[in-house]
Write a structure and sequence with these properties.
The structure is a single chain. By secondary structure, the protein is of the alpha+beta class. The protein is built from 5 helices and 5 strands, in the order E-H-H-H-E-E-E-H-E-H. Strand 3 and strand 4 form a beta hairpin. It starts with a strand and ends in a 28-residue tail after the last helix.
Length: 150
């Protein structure tokens, strides 16, 4: 396995990876997915020796104060092989100079959330509450206000 930075994204390859984990919000519009990847600060991938895409992680960052890990996607056929850990550790080194290194994941009460929380805790992550911080977000479904004038 090798990890590399990428900035060109094959739509079929990205669709296949994101579909493998059931992230329908991304797979509904593969062009939008690829634009989001291109607009990220950094995208790293894990590939096997034949070049097959195994996993991807991407960040949103000012590269000074904050790094937000937007996606960590590992094809389930390759889970439990240290690939996700290698991607996160790569990002932790890359952004070690940033004051904040953050990510969000499913709530711990969900099956995926329990697994994700254990994984991130094994890498030293703490919940926002444990860091004496709070996280906020707008509801997922809200009106698109881009084309309205104030």
């Amino acid at each position: 396995m090798f990890i590399t930075e990428e900035d060109v994204f094959d739509p079929d390859e990205m669709l296949s990876l994101y579909a493998s984990v059931g992230w329908e919000g991304y797979t509904a519009d593969v062009d939008k997915l690829c634009r989001g990847l291109r607009n990220s600060h950094l995208v790293i991938t894990a590939r096997d020796g034949s070049g097959t895409l195994l996993a991807l992680a991407r960040t949103i960052s000012d590269d000074e104060h904050i790094c937000y890990v937007q996606d960590v996607v590992v094809n389930p056929a390759h889970h439990r092989r240290g690939i996700g850990r290698a991607l996160i550790e790569h990002l932790m080194r890359r952004y070690s100079h940033c004051r904040f290194f953050l990510l969000s994941t499913d709530h711990e009460s969900s099956p995926e959330g329990r697994r994700n929380h254990a994984f991130y805790r094994s890498l030293g992550f703490l919940s926002y509450e444990e860091k004496q911080m709070a996280g906020f977000g707008l509801p997922r479904h809200r009106p698109n206000l881009r084309d309205t004038t104030p």
